[in-house]
């Protein structure tokens, strides 16, 4: 009945005011108003519980072919609808997801003489708003070249923001925390990418952009369903607190090539007065994506893995096999990590600990001369180094109940990868591999294209589609940031697309606040392969001359398995470092990678986070709590546990005196009986955390832990 009332009110508004339309979220907390002015300019506003979120902001698209700015509209028709259904993801943070929204669809005609029809569609959820442009089939011209997009987000104040620069080719930056008005001055100091020689708007930041108003509103701007379109950065106008869409260009400066019918990605605005709800609202982005494009998904398996990877980052082995080349022969240098004996050691470790996969990087010919040289045919993805017996390793892994995970570094040459994908994926399947980690380090080939431009956005999708045809799961590194496409392509299980844990091995590292920001920014669009689980925190362990380290405690590394979601989750450290601390490694062995439910218990971007998750098809729960550089005690109420049932809480915590910088590897493990009435006091050291497993108590547990 409430939907009928909404529709009647909306139609009344259309009839009486003609050019002003209003839509509300199902719970009434969010209101969007669109207005077409007398001169045909389209704008919109958003409020949350009566408070301004987006002040009047323009909507238009600039075309190069035909040469017209779609900014002078007449309203032909307005339609509205309501949706309320539930769907089940193939894997994820929830067993089921509710899609409840109201839609307002404006059918518009450009009255500037082009005759182009365009739709602007708004979907209003309880969590926020998504809107996009649609180009329906036209009577005449159906091919469009987009030269720019004028979508604006005029904020209601000079909010504090968590941002990284609008680099077209990398997301691997630590986050800045400033006022919007300070972005322009600060951006030049942080822009250090190899892509500085390329086109870049010095006032732009990337999405997802997280903001907080002075009166306590949390606002997240991003996009959903990025398909056949470039990624959207946001140019900051400090004089008006306005953010305007800035699309990543192609090699000749155009933004997008569209053939009607076509749509842009959804522009998303998530808002709440509770920071916890921002993280929980990433379901809205999934709801704006299409259902799975594949009929069968039973072969897609969330899993943990170890790998020949961290040892290269800490400098005890290398990706390449040869120090020099003598004619066509490779001359081994003796430090190559991906050799048969070493990989067997990882397989043995995985088998002992119930870990499904072993990633091997540096297994294939080409690593001697690959980085940043715009060389197209560096890798063929099927030729192992002489010391890597892939047939023997396939046999050995199968006998141990373990699967090898393939690594395809493209060195940025997407054209080469596309030519070789079929042979590469056949090679994988012939050697018993069902998952691949792809990489795009360096300049993109085709030359002049960018990691986040339309051509590469389409490439990543082509890889996911091609891999699905071979029943292969994908973990993409150096791609465009995710926008919920894991719903449509559930075999595209994880991405990097941010500054990961490896930066701690060889750079100034990630500050302690980094992992408290990522769930509000990068992870809003999808899972991240952050590679947690580092136990040997200081790099001086490998080289006494090194002073860099991981900027967390060991306990926080455990907590990241809960707070940093990924269905492909790596135990990133070396086997010997885990064998040295089997009691702490127990949490990594036990923690799930697929979930039935998620509860955000406490959150503040840049400061702290606590999340509890229920394991898939299991009564067990796992909890992770993390902090920035400040020590704090967090109270975790366990009201999510079933009433009347007792659980054993195994708490992996920072020991007294622990500190991310001075004493990072001090941890303490305790057990206690808990139930839904229990509140755990979790004491977090500076840069620290706590991880908790919650398993139903047996009669013996109750007897032993009671006395």
Give short descriptive properties of this protein.
single chain; 707 residues; alpha+beta; Beta-galactosidase, Chain A, domain 5; TIM Barrel; 10-stranded antiparallel β-sheet; 8-stranded antiparallel β-sheet; 15 helices; 39 strands; disordered N terminus
Identify low-pLDDT runs: 1-18, 193-199
The CATH architecture category of the domain at 2-287 equals: Distorted Sandwich
In the CATH scheme, the class of the domain at 2-287 would be Mainly Beta
Quaternary organisation of the protein chains: single chain
Indicate the overall shape. globular
Q: Please identify the structural class as seen in this structure.
A: alpha+beta
Taking the sheet with the most strands, its summary is: 10 strands, antiparallel
Brief characterization of the structure:
With 707 residues, the protein is of the alpha+beta class. Strands 7, 8, 9, 10, 13, 14, 16, 17, 21 and 22 form a ten-stranded antiparallel beta sheet that branches.
Topology:
Layout: H1 2-17, E1 20-24, E2 30-36, E3 42-48, E4 51-58, E5 61-65, E6 68-70, E7 73-87, E8 97-110, E9 117-125, E10 128-135, E11 143-149, E12 152-155, E13 160-163, E14 176-179, H2 183-190, E15 204-206, E16 209-212, E17 218-224, E18 232-237, E19 242-247, E20 256-259, E21 262-263, E22 266-272, H3 275-280, H4 282-287, E23 303-308, H5 310-313, E24 322-326, E25 329-332, H6 340-352, E26 357-360, H7 390-399, E27 403-409, H8 414-430, E28 435-439, H9 454-469, E29 473-476, E30 492-495, H10 503-506, H11 514-517, H12 554-563, E31 568-570, H13 575-579, H14 582-590, E32 595-604, E33 608-615, E34 621-627, E35 632-637, E36 647-654, E37 667-674, E38 679-684, E39 689-696, H15 699-706
Parallel strand pairs: 23-26, 23-31, 26-27, 27-28, 28-29, 29-30
Antiparallel strand pairs: 1-2, 2-3, 3-4, 4-12, 5-6, 5-11, 7-8, 8-9, 9-10, 10-21, 10-22, 11-20, 12-19, 13-14, 13-16, 15-18, 16-17, 17-22, 18-19, 24-25, 32-33, 33-34, 34-39, 35-38, 36-37, 36-39
Helix pairs in contact: 6-7, 8-9
């Amino acid at each position: 009945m409430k939907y009928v009332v909404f529709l009647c009110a909306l139609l009344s508004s259309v009839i009486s005011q003609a050019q002003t339309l209003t839509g509300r979220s199902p719970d009434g907390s969010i209101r969007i108003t669109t207005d077409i002015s007398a001169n045909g300019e389209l704008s919109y506003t958003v409020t949350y519980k009566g408070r301004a979120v987006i002040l009047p902001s323009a909507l238009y698209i600039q075309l190069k072919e035909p040469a017209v700015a779609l900014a002078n509209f007449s309203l032909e028709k307005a339609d509205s609808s309501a949706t309320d259904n539930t769907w089940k993801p193939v894997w994820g943070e929830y067993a089921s997801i509710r899609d409840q929204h109201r839609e307002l669809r404006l059918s518009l005609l450009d009255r500037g003489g082009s005759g182009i029809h365009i739709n602007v569609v708004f979907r209003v959820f309880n969590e926020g708003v998504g809107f996009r442009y649609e180009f329906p089939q036209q009577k005449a011209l159906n091919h469009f070249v987009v030269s720019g997009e004028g979508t604006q987000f005029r904020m209601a104040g000079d909010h504090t923001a968590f941002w990284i620069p609008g680099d077209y080719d990398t997301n691997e930056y630590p986050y800045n925390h400033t006022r919007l008005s300070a972005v322009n001055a600060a951006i030049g100091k942080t822009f250090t990418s190899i892509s500085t020689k390329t086109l870049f708007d010095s006032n732009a930041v990337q999405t997802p952009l997280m903001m907080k108003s002075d009166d306590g509103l949390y606002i997240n701007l991003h996009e959903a369903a990025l398909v056949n379109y470039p990624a959207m950065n946001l140019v900051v106008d400090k004089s008006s607190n306005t953010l305007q869409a800035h699309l990543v260009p192609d090699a000749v400066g155009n933004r997008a090539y569209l053939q009607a019918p076509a749509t842009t990605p959804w522009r998303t605005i998530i808002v709440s007065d509770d920071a916890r709800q921002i993280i929980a609202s990433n379901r809205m982005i999934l709801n704006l994506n299409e259902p799975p494009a594949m009929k069968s998904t039973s072969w897609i398996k969330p899993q943990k893995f170890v790998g020949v990877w961290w040892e290269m980052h800490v400098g005890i082995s290398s990706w390449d096999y040869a120090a020099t080349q003598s004619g066509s022969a490779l001359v081994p240098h003796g430090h190559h990590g991906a050799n048969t004996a070493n990989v067997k050691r990882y397989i043995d470790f995985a088998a002992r600990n119930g870990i499904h996969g072993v990633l091997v990087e540096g297994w294939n010919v080409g690593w001697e001369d690959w980085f940043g040289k715009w060389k197209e045919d560096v890798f063929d993805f099927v030729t192992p180094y002489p010391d890597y017996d892939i047939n023997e390793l396939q046999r050995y892994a199968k006998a141990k109940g373990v699967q090898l995970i393939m690594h395809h570094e493209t060195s940025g040459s997407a054209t080469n990868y596309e030519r070789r994908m079929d042979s590469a994926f056949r090679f994988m399947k012939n050697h018993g591999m069902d998952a691949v980690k792809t990489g795009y380090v360096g300049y993109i080939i085709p030359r002049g294209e960018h990691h986040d431009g339309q051509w590469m956005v389409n490439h990543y999708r082509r890889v996911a589609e091609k891999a699905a045809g071979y029943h292969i799961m994908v973990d993409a590194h150096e791609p465009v940031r995710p926008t919920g496409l894991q719903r449509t392509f559930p075999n595209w299980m994880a991405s990097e697309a941010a500054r990961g844990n490896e930066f701690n091995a060889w750079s100034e590292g990630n500050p302690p606040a980094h992992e408290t920001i990522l769930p509000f920014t990068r992870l809003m669009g999808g899972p991240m392969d952050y590679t947690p689980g580092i136990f040997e925190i200081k790099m001086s362990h490998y080289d006494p001359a090194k002073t860099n380290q991981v900027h967390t405690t060991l306990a926080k590394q455990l907590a990241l398995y809960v707070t940093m979601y990924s269905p492909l989750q790596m135990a990133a450290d070396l086997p010997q470092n885990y064998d040295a601390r089997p009691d702490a490694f127990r949490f990594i062995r036990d923690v799930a990678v697929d979930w039935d439910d998620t509860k955000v218990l406490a959150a503040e971007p840049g400061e702290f986070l606590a999340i509890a998750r229920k394991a898939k098809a299991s009564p067990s729960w796992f909890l992770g709590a993390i902090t920035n550089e400040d020590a704090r005690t967090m109270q975790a109420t366990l009201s999510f546990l079933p009433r009347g049932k007792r659980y054993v809480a195994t708490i992996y915590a920072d020991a007294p005196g622990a500190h991310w910088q001075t004493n990072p590897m001090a941890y303490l493990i305790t057990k206690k009986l808990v139930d839904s009435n229990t509140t755990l006091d979790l004491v977090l050291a500076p840069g620290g955390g706590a991880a908790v497993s919650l398993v139903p108590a047996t009669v013996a547990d109750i007897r032993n832990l009671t006395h």
